[in-house]
């Protein structure tokens, strides 16, 4: 009896159905689109270099592939943690039904994982062949397997590798776009939720995914190079920031267009969506997502694009703006996933969400899940060297 | 093996195709035979579900042996409530027409807790026209009774207004029959 009279219960407003009191898709479902988004954005950077020949991205191209791989390994982890019986996900994959959106994701995920692994292997083949010659024991055995047991580095073989890489990256782009667009579709396809059920959802998710991934690459590149005491390629950072600016303008515009179309069309549940954004989400949406984490970075990116700044200040600003944008996308995911569930199907009341520390989907679990890709990245760095040997020569 | 790079890649491609084909075969082996006969589910599951013993009864199952409670329950505002929702599962009490166990009877504070599962104002599921909800202990204060009172000291649990209407009739606060 005490629980229902506690202040928690009193925060619930108006008229909420009992099954809407609890937010069922909590922080793990916030992480799921966030992690797949990081993969997508990182892959875009690699694609710009390997397929579209943006030469200035060379220093980060290989690193972004490994970054994407490390995060892709963990993309399904939050989903499995969210499930009560995670082993049952195989049932869904064994007998996929057209009415099950999640089964589709399983297949798209598997294909993108396969493609990414082979891109990494072909991109790294010359290095792996060299490492194979210098390594011993089980490491040599691993390198033999990773190089398909071939030490052929002739011009002909390398030309073939380049063709294969272009082909794989070529099919990798639509797969990556589908992978994250599909995540947006999973939310957009929930007819019962008026904030999610919009065809704009895949588009918004895709652009914000590119923003988060590119930001992560910029930040990780600058931080790792600084920590290791190595130089930072300014031309590369500049190209990354320009790409980031383009994707961020698109992402932010579509985020605002969605709100605008809700308020202009005043369709079905408009009063609920308006009440949500100005009520329970007033701080996390308008203040944090829009004002602090979108308008400020937009201004900074504008200054970086139009004013000539000293290289070290430019790089520092790039790191700061990337960090803010990483936060922006995380808050955006939060506002969509958690925010969307704060309104009751009664269309009359709102509930509250209180993150727990030690819950199965609590803050500690979030920290652990977000740490694992970095551990994988560290392990990958021991097998696949992040930076090409000649990366120091292009440094200004 | 001294194979050219091209040949190795061809073997790799062949292995991927074999792996994908093997996956399809594996999928075929793992999917239960009766899957998809009627729809995207296991047809055998229907027969298996039918074998699960029935655990719940209807109110009429209870009324057969409890005529006194039946008489009050059928007239009261709780007439649409299932006996099992407060008393527990039928199968724990009766098997093959014979009593096999006693269902736990709620006492004192437990009764108040049980009532508030539906009648708490904090549960904003239905309007006051559908279900009367109260906030505790405000309701007890409003009715000018002791705060230690349990719900069943004023309300009959099967017909919540039975005593209230009778009391109002006796004291003349309400015309008989209204």
Task: Describe the secondary-structure layout.
The complex is a heterodimer of chains A (396) and B (178).
Chain A: H1 7-10, H2 27-50, H3 58-73, H4 77-82, H5 89-94, H6 101-134, H7 137-146, H8 155-188, H9 200-227, H10 234-265, H11 270-278, H12 282-306, H13 311-340, H14 363-383
Helix pairs in contact in A: 2-3, 2-8, 2-9, 2-13, 2-14, 3-6, 3-9, 3-14, 6-7, 6-8, 8-9, 9-10, 9-13, 10-12, 10-13, 12-13
Chain B: H1 5-30, H2 44-51, H3 59-63, H4 67-75, H5 84-87, E1 94-95, E2 98-99, H6 109-119, H7 138-142, H8 162-171
Antiparallel strand pairs in B: 1-2
Describe this protein's structure.
The complex is a heterodimer of chains A (396) and B (178). In chain A, 70% of the residues lie in helices and 0% in strands. Chain A has 14 helices and no strands. The longest helix of chain B is centred in the first third of the chain and has 26 residues, at 5-30. Chain B folds into two domains: 40-103, Helix Hairpins; 106-178, no CATH class. Chain B has eight helices and two strands; from the N terminus they run αααααββααα. In chain B, 44% of the residues lie in helices and 2% in strands. The A-B interface holds A 1, 4-5, 9-10, 12, 14-18, 94-95, 97, 99, 114, 148-150, 152, 154, 157, 160, 164, 346, 349 and B 1, 3-6, 8-9, 12, 16, 27, 30-31, 35-36, 40, 112-113, 116, 120, 122-125, 136.
């Amino acid at each position: 009896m005490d629980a229902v009279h506690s202040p928690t219960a009193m925060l619930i407003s108006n008229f909420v159905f009992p099954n809407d009191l609890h937010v069922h898709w909590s922080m793990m479902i916030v992480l799921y689109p966030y992690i797949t988004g990081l993969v997508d954005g990182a892959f875009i950077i690699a694609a710009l270099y390997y397929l579209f020949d943006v030469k200035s991205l060379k220093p980060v191209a290989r690193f972004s592939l490994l970054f994407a791989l490390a995060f892709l390994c963990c993309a399904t982890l939050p989903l499995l943690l969210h499930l009560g019986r995670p082993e049952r996900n195989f049932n869904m994959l064994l007998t996929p039904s057209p009415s099950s959106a999640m089964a589709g994701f399983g297949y798209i995920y598997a294909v993108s994982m396969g493609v990414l692994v082979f891109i990494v292997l072909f991109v790294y083949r010359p290095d792996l062949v060299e490492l194979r010659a210098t390594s011993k024991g089980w490491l040599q055995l691993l390198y033999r397997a990773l190089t398909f047991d071939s030490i052929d580095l002739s011009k002909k073989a390398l030309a073939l590798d380049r063709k294969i890489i272009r082909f794989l990256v070529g099919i990798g782009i639509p797969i990556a776009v589908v992978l994250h667009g599909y995540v947006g579709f999973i939310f957009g396809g929930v007819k019962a939720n008026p904030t999610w059920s919009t065809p704009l959802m895949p588009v918004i998710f895709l652009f914000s995914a590119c923003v988060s991934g590119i930001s992560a690459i910029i930040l990780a590149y600058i931080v790792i190079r600084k920590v290791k005491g190595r130089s930072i390629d300014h031309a590369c950072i500049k190209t990354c920031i320009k790409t980031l600016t383009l994707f961020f303008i698109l992402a932010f515009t579509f985020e605002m267009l969605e709100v605008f179309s809700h308020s202009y069309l005043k369709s079905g549940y408009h009063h609920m969506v308006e009440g949500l954004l100005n009520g329970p989400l007033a701080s996390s949406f308008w203040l944090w997502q829009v004002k602090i984490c979108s308008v400020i970075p937009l201004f900074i990116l504008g200054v970086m694009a139009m004013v000539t700044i000293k290289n070290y200040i430019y790089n520092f600003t790039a790191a700061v703006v990337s960090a803010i944008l990483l936060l922006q996308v995380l808050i955006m995911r939060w506002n969509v996933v958690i925010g969307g569930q704060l309104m009751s199907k009664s269309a009359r009341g709102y509930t509250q969400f209180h993150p727990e520390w030690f819950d199965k989907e609590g803050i500690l679990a979030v920290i652990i899940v977000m740490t694992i890709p970095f551990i994988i990245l560290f392990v990958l760095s021991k097998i696949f060297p992040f930076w090409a040997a000649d990366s120091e020569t292009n440094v200004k | 093996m001294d194979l050219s790079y091209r040949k190795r890649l061809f073997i790799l491609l062949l292995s991927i195709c074999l792996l994908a084909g093997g996956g399809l075969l594996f999928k075929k082996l793992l999917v239960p035979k009766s899957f998809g006969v009627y729809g995207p589910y296991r047809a055998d599951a229907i027969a298996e579900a039918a074998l699960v013993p029935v655990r719940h009864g209807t109110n009429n199952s209870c009324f057969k042996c409890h005529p006194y409670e039946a008489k009050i329950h059928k007239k009261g505002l709780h007439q649409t409530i299932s006996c099992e929702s407060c008393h527990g599962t039928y199968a724990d009490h009766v098997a093959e027409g014979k009593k096999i166990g006693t269902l736990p009877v709620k006492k004192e504070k437990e009764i108040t807790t049980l009532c508030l599962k539906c009648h708490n104002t904090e549960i904003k599921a239905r309007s006051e026209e559908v279900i009367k909800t109260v906030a505790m202990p405000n309701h007890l204060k409003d009715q000018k009774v002791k705060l230690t009172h349990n719900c069943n000291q004023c309300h009959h649990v099967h017909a919540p207004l039975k005593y209230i209407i009778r009391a109002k009739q006796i004291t003349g606060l309400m015309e008989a029959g209204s």
